[in-house]
Amino acid sequence: MTQSDLNTRRQPTVPRNDEASLIASCRIQAGLTREQLGARLGVPEHLVDLWESPGYEGVDLPLLRRVAAATGCDLEIRFTRPKRNVVATATRTAAAALVLLAFTALPGCITETESSLRTPHAGAMSTQGVIIEGDLEAIWLDVQQTVTGMTNQPLLSRGVEKSFTTTVNGAHLDVLVERYNAERTIVHVNSTDAGIADYVRQRITLR
């Protein structure tokens, strides 16, 4: 084990907003040196060192998938990129945001998601979702209360569990709430007015 590895082990495992730290965090959580991770991936140690170098731009989702598989990290590639920095996580570049969200699925992160809900005005729903710490039922209640406070229109069930559609200031709003895992819930939000969708995501994250 090199001194560099020992120094890396002393660093916090909370990812920073760059691709290099995501590779390092995954490796450290698995208790691997750069050499050991390289052996699992079939690449030399110096390449892993390059991936972990601040500012290196060659890290992409296929590479993150390989690292996750090799280390057993909880990497959900169901999520792609955020359209903008809305809450919780400051990001410097789209690429950094992409791998940050894919790697951690942190509570409060805004992530672009695909859901099974179909809407009358937009067809299949490609949304930005919010991952929140909390029970599905409690989050579902919070979401209903948040949206009810924004509109005098009824929340119409879409016939899908934990979903509804309504109108806010003349814009269609569709929401689908699903269980993400045992501790977290994901709220899909879609609207014909991007500002309204952003507002809903922020409000339910900050409740």
TrEMBL record:
GO terms for molecular function: DNA binding. SUPFAM superfamilies: lambda repressor-like DNA-binding domains (SSF47413). It comes from Saltatorellus ferox. This is HTH cro/C1-type domain-containing protein. It comes from the Bacteria. Residues 23-78 form the HTH cro/C1-type domain. PROSITE patterns: HTH_CROC1.
